[in-house]
C-alpha cells in the first residue's frame, strides 16, 4: 500500500511516498481504508523528533493521526463495527509507526466513531484531534451554561471547535484572533478580541467581572490568563506546561471513541462544523506540512488519500 513515511527525524523534505506492507488486524481492531486525513502541528513536531523523549518510534514511520475512512475488514472480537461502516478516529497509538497518511490503517475499536453524515470526507478527516482536544479541555474544566470563557487562539483548528462547543453549552464566549478573523469568530458564536498588547483591557471592557474559565491553545499568554481570571476560576493550556504552576491544568488529548461519537452527533445535529483551509493529494503531503508550519492558515489542512 502507499504511505507517506520518514526514516529519520527531520523536516518535510525527508517525507517520502513509499510502498509499505498492509497492516495486521489484531483482536478488537478493524482495518480502515483511508479517505482523508489532516495535518496538525503535532505531526511536524513528531517529524522533527519533538516527541522522542516520550514516545518510542519504529522507522520507517508513517505520518498522521487524524483519519476518516471506510471499514475494510474486522478483526476477531470487534462487534462494534462492520465492513462498509464510515468511520473517523484520532489514531494515535502507543508508539510511532503506522499512521493515517496511507491507503490503510489498523485501529482498535475503542478509538473509532461513526462518521458524521453532515460533514464531507475532508471535514470529517479534520475533526478528530482538534475536536477531541477542545471537547476534553472543556469537560475537564466543567464549563457550564451562563459562565464566561476566554479562548486564546479562537480562529485555529482547536479554538474554532471550542467556540462552537462552548456556545452550545450556553456559555458566553470571548475569543482572540487577528482582526481579519473577527467576523469568522462571530459566525462561530464568539465575541472577538485582538491578541497582543491591550488584550487584558479589551477583555475587561467586555467582561468587567472577569472570566470563569480560560483556555489557552497558543501559549505565551499566562499573564493575560491570570489577569482576567476570576478568583476561583479555572484555566487550562495545551501549549504551556507552566499552567500547572499557576493552579491550572496542562492537557494533552486522548484517543476516545465515545467522546468522538459525541462530537459526530453534534455535527449531525447542526451544532458543529469544520472549516477547510486547503486540500492536498497524498503525493503532496510534504507541501501540506510546509503550509501548516507557516502558522497562518484558518481551518484544517487536509490530505486526501482515496
From TrEMBL:
<protein>
    <submittedName>
        <fullName>NADP-dependent oxidoreductase</fullName>
    </submittedName>
</protein>
<feature type="domain" description="Enoyl reductase (ER)">
    <location>
        <begin position="10"/>
        <end position="303"/>
    </location>
</feature>
<dbReference type="InterPro" id="IPR020843">
    <property type="entry name" value="ER"/>
</dbReference>
<dbReference type="InterPro" id="IPR052733">
    <property type="entry name" value="Chloroplast_QOR"/>
</dbReference>
<dbReference type="Pfam" id="PF08240">
    <property type="entry name" value="ADH_N"/>
</dbReference>
<dbReference type="GO" id="GO:0016491">
    <property type="term" value="F:oxidoreductase activity"/>
</dbReference>
<dbReference type="InterPro" id="IPR011032">
    <property type="entry name" value="GroES-like_sf"/>
</dbReference>
<dbReference type="InterPro" id="IPR013154">
    <property type="entry name" value="ADH-like_N"/>
</dbReference>
<dbReference type="InterPro" id="IPR036291">
    <property type="entry name" value="NAD(P)-bd_dom_sf"/>
</dbReference>
<dbReference type="Pfam" id="PF13602">
    <property type="entry name" value="ADH_zinc_N_2"/>
</dbReference>
Amino acid at each position: 500500500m502507499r504511505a507517506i513515511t520518514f526514516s529519520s527525524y527531520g523536516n518535510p523534505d525527508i517525507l517520502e511516498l513509499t510502498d509499505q506492507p498492509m497492516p495486521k488486524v489484531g483482536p478488537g481492531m478493524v482495518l480502515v481504508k483511508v479517505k482523508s486525513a489532516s495535518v496538525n502541528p503535532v505531526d511536524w513536531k513528531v517529524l522533527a523528533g519533538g516527541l522522542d523523549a516520550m514516545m518510542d518510534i519504529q522507522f520507517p514511520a508513517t505520518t498522521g493521526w487524524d483519519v476518516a475512512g471506510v471499514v475494510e475488514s474486522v478483526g476477531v472480537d470487534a462487534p462494534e463495527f462492520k465492513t462498509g461502516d464510515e468511520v473517523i478516529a484520532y489514531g494515535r497509538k502507543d508508539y510511532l509507526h503506522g499512521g493515517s497518511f496511507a491507503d490503510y490503517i489498523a485501529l482498535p475499536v475503542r478509538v473509532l466513531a461513526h462518521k458524521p453524515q453532515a460533514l464531507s470526507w475532508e471535514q470529517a478527516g479534520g475533526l478528530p484531534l482538534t475536536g477531541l482536544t477542545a471537547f476534553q479541555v472543556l469537560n475537564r474544566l466543567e464549563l457550564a451554561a451562563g459562565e464566561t470563557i476566554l479562548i486564546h487562539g479562537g480562529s485555529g483548528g482547536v479554538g474554532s471547535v471550542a467556540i462552537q462547543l462552548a456556545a452550545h453549552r450556553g456559555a458566553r464566549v470571548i475569543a482572540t484572533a487577528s482582526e481579519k478573523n473577527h467576523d469568522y469568530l462571530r459566525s462561530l458564536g464568539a465575541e472577538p478580541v485582538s491578541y497582543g498588547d491591550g488584550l487584558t483591557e479589551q477583555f475587561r471592557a467586555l467582561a468587567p467581572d472577569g472570566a470563569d474559565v480560560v483556555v489557552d491553545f497558543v501559549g505565551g499568554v499566562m499573564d493575560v490568563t491570570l489577569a482576567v481570571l476570576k478568583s476561583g476560576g479555572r484555566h487550562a493550556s495545551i501549549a504551556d506546561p507552566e499552567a500547572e504552576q499557576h493552579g491550572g491544568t496542562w492537557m494533552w488529548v486522548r484517543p476516545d471513541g465515545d467522546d468522538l461519537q459525541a462530537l459526530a452527533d453534534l455535527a449531525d445535529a447542526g451544532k458543529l462544523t469544520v472549516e477547510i483551509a486547503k486540500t492536498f493529494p497524498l503525493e503532496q503531503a510534504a507541501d501540506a506540512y510546509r503550509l501548516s508550519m507557516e502558522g497562518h492558515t484558518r481551518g484544517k489542512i487536509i490530505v486526501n488519500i482515496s
